[in-house]
Predict the structure.
Amino acid sequence: MLKIAAVEPESLGAELGLAPGDELLSINGRELVDFLDWEFLAADEAFVLRVRTAAGEEVEFDIERPLELPLGVMLEPPRIRRCANRCDFCFVDGNPEGSRKTLFIRDDDYRLSFRHGNFATLTNLKDKDVRRILEYRLSPLYVSVHATDPEIRRRLLRNPRAPAVLEQMRMFAAGGIQFHAQIVLVPGINDGPVLAKSLGDLYEMGPSVLTVSVVPVALTSFSRLDLVRSPEPREAAEAIRVVRRWAGKARGERGEGWVYGSDELYQIAGEPFPPAEEYDGFPQVENGVGAVRYLEQHIESEAAELPLMAGQRVLVCTGTAMGTLMPNLLPALERATGATFELAVLENTYYGPTVTTAGLLPGEAFRQALAGRGDVDLALLPAESVNEDGRFVDDVLLSDVERTAPMDVRLSYHFTDALGACVVGRES
Ligand code: SF4
């Protein structure tokens, strides 16, 4: 069921009298199942839309509009497609008991893969999903490949019915679909020769596979540590060697590195990150691939635009992953703003110390770090640590952290976003 959540004022939707709660039934007689149908079928200049109003009346609209005139209809969030797998390393199993319900959703949704770049395994596709992917040209898709060997992949996903991913990808590629792939590295299972073979198979697919990332398995204190473990430094270093081999070949033959190790892989191995230019525009930065180099580049290019904040003290809160790297980034900010930057490296008190990424830090850790710091004018918190409802992973509200902190608090993805419009100082 496709329901309207909101209608923009002065849009065509508002002019037609569409309203929140109305159900969008069909376009040109074709049933609307989800947001994909809506977006693709309503993209034409002329179509017939059938709606059931919140009062239960069915109405048909004969719509003709210039394409630049938006319909202005926002939909209720889609029902997320659930996952058919049971990976030993699933992050859902890594949640402490009592975490909020949404953290226990095992989502595996090709629609969100296309729309938001969420990785999907494609193991829960029905025939009609396959038809839609091809018809709507949902490309690129972000696919969790993990291993191209079907049996090894089934073992990793704990899903004996998982289809052979290479066959699936080849079939989609023949229909013009491209992919960004990820391989979550589980030591002893899909590293070593399995990793080399997976990369070889994906490389052979040619331009259909746009990029591949190799990411070490992420575990918390609550994960199935009896079944799975993190890579050791030598295993991470070996994976980096395999990545480099294929990246070198790809750069020579195709002009781009094609396969990239995540920042965490380099950190586990104790090796320096490749230079920024080797990330080829950071195609998988949201998967933690090249995030540090991206941040450095961003600060460098934006520093000149930052306001002068001489005499101000700024506290930068981050996780232990960035804790050792951040000191390299802060001097550039100090030079540009004249402010003093101090780093607060926070251990993850919610998931345990093995979870090092700033985006999963709990609100309580920030609250404690900021308490009693009246000497600081501004605190920068990682923006990824707060969801769209303004909550941290432990359900603490950002507004509560802001209210109790003795300084101005801002969320920041890359410093310059928060500092750019900065008027520092507590409001009275
Ligand atoms: S694919 Fe694996 S890791 Fe992802 S949600 Fe399913 S079980 Fe969890």
